[in-house]
Give the backbone structure.
Amino acid sequence: MLNFTKFERINPEKRDVLQRLKDYGEVYQIFGKHRAREQADRCMQCGDPYCHTGCPLHNFIPAWLKQTAEKNMDLAFALSNETSPFPEILGRICPQDKLCEGACSLNTGHGAISIGAIETHLNERAFENGLKPKFAPLTSGKKVAVVGSGPSGISAATFLLRRGIEVEMFEREDRAGGLLMYGIPGFKLDKTTVDRRINWLLEAGMKLHLNCEIGKDKSVESLEKEFDAIYLGIGAKEGRLPKIQGEDASNAYLAMQFLTGIQKRNLGKKNSDFIDVKNKRVVVIGGGDTAMDCVRSSVREGASTVKCLYRRDEANMPGSKKEVVNSKEEGVEFIFNVSPNKIIKEGDKAVGIELLETTLSQADESGRQRVKIIEGSEFVEEADVIIFALGFSPEAPKFLTQLNVELNSWGGIVTNNYQTSNKKVYAGGDCQRGAHLAVTAAVDGREAAKEIIKVIS
């Protein structure tokens, strides 16, 4: 260990731009064993590891880095999976630069440890060698319903099954995975990786009900009657609009409409929701990772031009820096410091968007600089397709009322240590905390599972 002066930080290699734009295959290549050991060997093994505290899951990062460097891959795998429900997925999609790697003690000098890439490597290599997650026999006599099969639901199911508790998962879509399946493009996360985790849960004894909507295909009464506890991991899929004139244009869409339509097409499903942007001028409004998913997908779909409009500057973009870099490499144009004022329409179709230039002033209570509109700075950006990637809100389905679950002012589920106003019902992830990261949803699922186990055991 401590070889950070001997070896520089190396990022995983990326597929050539011209090649990767032809498909939705993953962009980043997985480290080979030599590279992974070399990079893990850079870790200083800090007495107070900031990477551990910077990770929402508080993963045992220095421990499995050490075991990777020392070629003890079985132990590295066990340590990696102890705290995380799907480390090989989070290694691919987490914004490590803002979490574990951003907190790394080497980040400001020699370059942070390539934590995400090593995490992906050690798990994929373990899988190749026949290792799989371990689960307990289902002997507890207790049964929990998990509503929603996204990151939070998968996490809750994982930690419940590890304790021998029966799990039945209910998903209204035709495939399990939620955000991981339909919200994140394949160039960041191959869907076979998601299917593999779901299949391991099924092997462990989980029952999965697809195309099953609570309150419609499964009654709330039967749900409460049949299970010792219920976990709600229903996410937050309701896209936000900018609330400007003309946003109802027939060729203006929400990000999830666009991304889900592409993913269903890529999975070979016939669907009327597919949005064709080939040879069209696409404008995406927003600056987070979802916006980057939209612009990068648009390029792959053959759009003639793709532009990302963001109201702050590049330094203040909320998403992962590597996503912005990848977008630029793939031909996306960024227009910073602009705010949408109104959609220009001809009939029911948008033909452009009127923008106002912005400037940044002193920080607000959240620490982010305030956005100030520059009066008289209007200009028009022409567009054939407009995509809003402005965040998400909870949907608050009707069955929550039937369950007597209290909601807050913005539609989120009110909880006390993950328990809702209905003492039999727990909730976590975006439906409880608001739209956030897959890793924080995983934290909620894990911690909620622990609380459920305490109560029903």
About this structure: Residues 419 and 426 are 4 Å apart (CA to CA). The chain has 18 helices and 16 strands. The two ends are 43 Å apart (CA to CA).
